[in-house]
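Hi P.,

Sorry for the delay on this. The queue was packed all week, but I finally got your sequence through. Input first:
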Amino acid sequence: MPTDLEFVAARPSSAARQLDDRSIHLWRIPYAMPEGRAPLLELLASYLDQSGSSIVLDHDARGKPRLADMASRSGVNHRLEFNWSHSGSFALVALARGCAVGVDIERLGKTRRPVDVARRFFDRNEAAALEPLDPAARDAAFVRLWCAKEAVLKAVGEGLSFGLARLAFARHPDAEWRLTRVDPALGRVDEWQLAGFEAAAGYRGALAWQGGPRAVAAFRPAGSGS
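Then the structure:
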């Protein structure tokens, strides 16, 4: 999977016409906490060809946000799936048709005590892989692993309470983590696709979905400077 995504400036209304059943769109948008879900709703509105005020979200049985059924009043394709995550000054939004997606973004440089967290909450082999690394490499590897776990769990609508040790990754020589084990509730390892990438300077991101390979197109709003 790609690890060097380039976020191309685009207008959401134009990009929306390119989304099909073989692709996933990933947006990096500027974000501030007081905005709440407003930037997400505006982006969804562009993909659904609706006004932002008409977009209504509800939640599935696991609490994952989703589009409320609008087919009865608009006839739009409500198979549009999405997921979003925000950290610091940015949010990532993933969109797909007929495919549940999960995305996570984390700002680098936080004090995380990675080995202590890994020993307590991660698979023991993941903790063992982090321990011998020098502090800078360990912190970076921990963030990459955290993003990967979050993205998979968010794709199926599970939160951290599901258990971070119920899916395991192995660190490869290229410093990326590869999924090696999942709880049966998450399906099979070979059903999962995962991309880790630099989300912005000082930020790490991960994108996950269950199903076959898809082309990932990465965008940022034209004229935003993001």
